[in-house]
Every structure is written in structure tokens, then in C-alpha cells.
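Deliverable D2.4 — example input (C-alpha cells):
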């Protein structure tokens, strides 16, 4: 089937007709025109229930009035000065109140940048080369995030494999890869590299795989024991699993953390936060010093993005907001589980808080290798079937992001589409 007119134009301009990922067949290529709450409309007026919400960057819902008001006010006062503005200062102060490890804050414009800066800071602070990541973890489109993200070959740990072409060889040779939730293997890798290990970088909720009790604590001890830094990539978990992020939720304090997505209330924003002695390596009065870390950008911490972030955090601080987010996530996970059980299709539902994911394998899923037996044909049929039935999502990922705007009707519409898709499009 040919693409609809807007989709056709988009396919002519953008590689794959997208801004990144999606990989929709041409006939499904759409162009979005508008969003409100948990609904988006395409340029042809077709309505979708949004189950990806700007990949989790829009935690309050599209066009939330408090954010629209804050952004409109700030836009009239100047959108960006590449310098500290009042909203940037207030948001920085609020982050320090909210996030346990945040003794200092520096803004950037995305989670990709934030995690890359964490790695640079860790190498500079320790004078060491290696960074340990967990197989299958995404840390943004930077070097660390695109190594051993979807490894095709199962190399022996800790060997890394590039998932993107075009990386320098050091992106692979300076990364050690460990299996998530396997403290013994991780310990052995750390022990073998303890003099050269700059950091352990972890998504505390690894994609949607939950950490087993003691795992994050164990990483904390391993990092401290080796004189390495523990870095939490909280791009997803920050302000989502709890107001204070995963470090509050799981009770483990990292040395540095990367923030993004929800922090900006749907506007481009990221931040690195952490120990003052490490963060102060970016002070410009240190230029010329061997350990000085270059960290600056034209749009990092823009006035308009930080105004949006402040408005978002004010809403998230209101009584009951996390109960609402967790309730939405729990309903979606329970509904998915029931629909899959009724369909007789083997699958594992994952996630926590306002996050859910489906892996088409029996489970349990503790790490990346447990997902390798997953039926990718079913997964693709499931996601495209949902898309065809009016669920907006990224068909390259079964990760669903809920928001404060997802009402019971939205969740019911999603679960109806799930049942219909499993019945019609996914073979048991
Ligand atoms: C854990 C994690 N880190 C980093 C990133 C990159 O963030 P951004 O897309 O804002 O650059 C993502 C994006 O999905 C992510 O999930």
C-alpha cells in the first residue's frame, strides 16, 4: 500500500520517514499535528492513544496547561541566553532538593549528552580508561549507549560489540560489558580491571528489567572498593520512579547521575548531577588543569526548557501524582498480562512505576540474554497491529510510557487494541 500524502512527503525528507527509530512500513508513515493529554492526532485528523509520550519526555501529558503557561511566559522574556537564567537557577535548586546525590548541577540539552558527560567526568576524576556497562543498556546515542546495545554475537563478557557503525575503536575497547543482575560476574570483571576502571554506569531499572534485591547495593560496594565512580543513568527513572528518581526508589546513592526526559517537561533538557568534587572539574577557572572537563553547550539549560521543567516538577510534587502514575502503570501491566495469558501466547510483562514492556518469551527475564529467545516476528506484528488500531508507539520498542494524562478510558482503549491485535495479528 502506498504512503498517505503527508507520510509520503515525510519519507522524501527524512531517512526512513522518521526523526529516529520507528521503522514504520511506508503505508503507516504519519505526520503528527497535535497532542493533548494522552491523545495525538495526525495531519489527516486520525486520532491515536499515545503510549510512548515523546519517549517518556512528556510525563504530564501533551500540552499540559501549566507547562504551556510557563513556556509562553518565558518565551516572551527570552528563550535562551546560554547563561544562568532565573528558571535555570530555580530548577537547579529544586533538583538539589529532590535528588540525593545532587551536590552540584550542570545542564545540557538531552539524556545522550548527560550520560556522555558522566563518562567523561568519571574518566577525568579517576584518570582511568575503562567504563563498565550492562549488556543491552541504552545510554543515549553517544558511544557508550551504542556499544553492546543489541549485540548480534554473544561474546564472552566483558567484550563489547559496536551496535552502530562509525564508532572509534576505543568506544569498543574501553568498555567492559557485564550481565545485568549478575553480581558475581560483574565482580569478577571489576576485580580484573580495578586499577583501570573509571566507572560502573547503570540504568537502575535496566530498560524495563527490575534490579534484583541487593544488585544496585552490590554495584555501589564494587565501585567504592575499586575507587571507581558509580553512575546512574536516570534519564528514564529520574522524576518517574519517584520524585527523587531511582536513587530514592531503590535507596542507593550514586556518585553521578544523568537526568533528562521528564526533567524538561517535554522540552529539550538534560543535566548531570553529583558529587561536588567531581562536578567541580567543569569549573572554567580550571582550564589548563590536566583534569579540567569541557562541558558547555549553546542550548543546555535554556530559559524556556528550564521554565517548562520547573512547571513539570511543581505538578509532580502535588499530592497523589506518583500514586496516579503507578496506578496507571500497574493497570497496563496487569491488563497486558491477562490479555497475553488468555491468548495463550508466551510472553513476559516487565516494568515498574509508569513503565511497561512485553517480551515475547516465557521468562523470567533477568538480563539481555534472557530476551534473546524472544519471538521478534510476534513482537513486530504486535506493535504494528497496535499502531494500525490507533495506538501511537515506537514499533522498534515494546516499552510503553504512561503519563499523568492517561485516564482509565485511555488505558481501556489500549487494552482493547491489545486483545484485538493478539487475536487477529499475533499467532499463538
Ligand atoms: C536510559 C537512557 N539514557 C539515555 C537516553 C538518551 O536520552 P535522549 O534521547 O534524551 O538523548 C535514553 C533515551 O531513551 C535512555 O532511555
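Example output (designed residues):
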Amino acid at each position: 500500500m502506498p504512503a498517505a500524502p503527508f507520510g509520503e512527503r515525510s519519507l522524501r525528507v527524512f531517512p526512513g520517514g522518521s526523526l529516529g527509530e520507528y521503522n514504520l512500513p511506508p503505508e503507516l508513515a504519519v505526520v503528527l499535528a497535535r497532542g493533548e493529554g494522552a491523545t495525538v492526532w495526525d495531519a489527516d485528523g486520525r486520532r491515536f492513544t499515545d503510549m510512548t509520550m515523546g519517549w517518556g519526555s512528556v510525563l504530564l501529558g501533551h500540552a499540559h496547561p501549566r507547562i504551556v503557561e510557563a513556556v509562553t511566559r518565558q518565551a516572551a522574556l527570552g528563550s535562551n541566553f546560554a547563561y544562568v537564567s532565573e528558571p535555570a537557577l530555580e530548577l537547579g535548586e529544586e533538583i538539589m532538593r529532590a535528588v540525593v546525590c545532587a551536590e552540584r548541577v550542570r545542564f545540557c540539552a538531552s539524556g545522550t549528552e548527560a550520560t556522555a558527560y558522566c563518562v567523561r567526568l568519571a574518566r577525568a576524576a579517576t584518570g582511568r580508561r575503562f567504563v563498565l556497562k550492562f549488556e543491552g543498556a541504552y545510554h543515549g546515542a553517544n558511544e557508550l549507549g551504542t556499544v553492546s546495545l543489541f549485540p548480534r554475537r554473544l561474546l564472552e563478557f566483558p567484550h563489547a560489540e559496536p551496535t552502530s557503525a562509525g564508532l572509534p575503536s576505543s568506544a569498543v575497547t574501553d568498555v567492559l560489558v557485564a550481565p545485568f543482575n549478575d553480581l558475581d560476574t560483574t565482580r569478577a570483571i571489576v576485580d580484573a580491571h580495578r586499577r583501570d576502571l573509571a566507572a560502573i554506569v547503570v540504568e537502575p531499572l535496566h530498560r524495563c528489567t527490575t534490579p534484583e534485591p541487593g544488585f544496585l547495593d552490590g554495584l555501589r560496594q564494587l565501585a567504592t572498593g575499586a575507587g571507581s565512580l558509580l553512575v546512574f543513568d536516570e534519564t528514564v527513572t529520574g522524576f518517574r520512579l519517584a520524585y527523587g528518581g531511582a536513587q530514592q526508589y531503590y535507596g542507593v546513592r550514586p556518585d553521578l547521575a544523568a537526568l533528562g526526559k521528564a526533567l524538561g517537561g517535554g522540552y529539550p533538557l538534560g543535566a548531570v548531577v553529583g558529587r561536588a568534587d567531581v562536578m567541580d572539574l567543569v569549573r572554567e577557572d580550571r582550564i589548563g588543569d590536566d583534569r579540567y572537563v569541557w562541558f558547555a553547550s549553546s542550548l543546555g539549560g535554556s530559559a524556556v526548557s528550564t521554565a517548562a521543567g520547573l512547571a513539570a516538577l511543581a505538578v509532580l510534587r502535588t499530592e497523589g501524582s506518583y500514586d496516579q502514575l503507578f496506578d496507571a502503570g500497574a493497570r497496563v501491566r496487569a491488563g497486558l498480562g491477562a490479555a497475553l495469558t488468555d491468548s495463550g501466547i508466551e510472553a513476559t510483562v516487565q516494568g515498574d512505576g509508569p513503565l511497561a514492556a512485553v517480551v515475547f518469551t516465557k521468562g523470567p527475564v533477568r538480563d539481555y540474554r534472557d530476551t534473546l529467545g524472544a519471538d521478534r516476528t510476534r513482537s513486530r506484528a504486535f506493535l504494528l497491529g497496535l499502531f494500525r488500531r490507533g495506538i501511537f508507539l515506537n514499533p522498534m520498542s515494546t516499552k510503553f510510557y504512561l503519563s499523568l494524562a492517561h485516564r482509565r478510558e485511555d488505558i481501556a482503549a489500549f487494552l482493547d487494541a491489545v486483545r484485538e491485535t493478539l487475536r487477529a495479528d499475533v499467532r499463538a
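The pocket of pyridoxal-5'-phosphate is lined by residues 55, 110-112, 115, 138-140, 203, 233, 235-236, 260-261 (CB under 6 Å).
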